[in-house]
Amino acid sequence: MALRSRITGVGSYVPPRIVTNEDLTQLMDTSDEWITQRTGIKQRHWVESTTSTSDLALEASKQALASAGIGPEELDMIFFATISPDHFFPGTGVFLQRKLGVPGIPAIDVRQQCTGFIYAVSMADQYIRTGSARRALVVGAGIHSKGLDISTQGRDVAVLFGDGAGAIVMEATDVRDPTVDSHV
Q: What are the DSSP calls for 99-163, one per residue?
């Protein structure tokens, strides 16, 4: 039977700092009512200045691995989707790889803005289906707060975004359902 992939673990992480709509009124000409009417958003999570994207990803990854009941040493690959890398190069997946203690496995960054995680899932699925990997960690993480225009001019976008990470473990299976199926 053909190999397929399935999601066996999930994890997420948001930084503890909560920024409310009222907090944003101190930074730009806006109000809780203006933001809530347009977005429904009341608060978002923002990182402190010393937190990196790979720090957020590490916490989400630990949860996903625990949820899957495996350790990082059991992974074959890491796919890391982000638009806010720790550095211009190397890819942020390499920093996560080091923090997880698995320097010998491939770590591939995917930089496709909001769709990056979907592309990363599809890529992991293809590696698993071809037998090139049995287990893959797929992470989507972003720090938007450090790059937003936090002024009245930028408020239409700034009020929307927070910081955080999500991660899944994907594994090979020969069972047809439930499985991941992708067509990108």
A: HHT-TTS-EEEE--GGGHHHHHHHHHHHHHHTTS-SEEEEEEEE--TTTS--STTTHHHHTT---
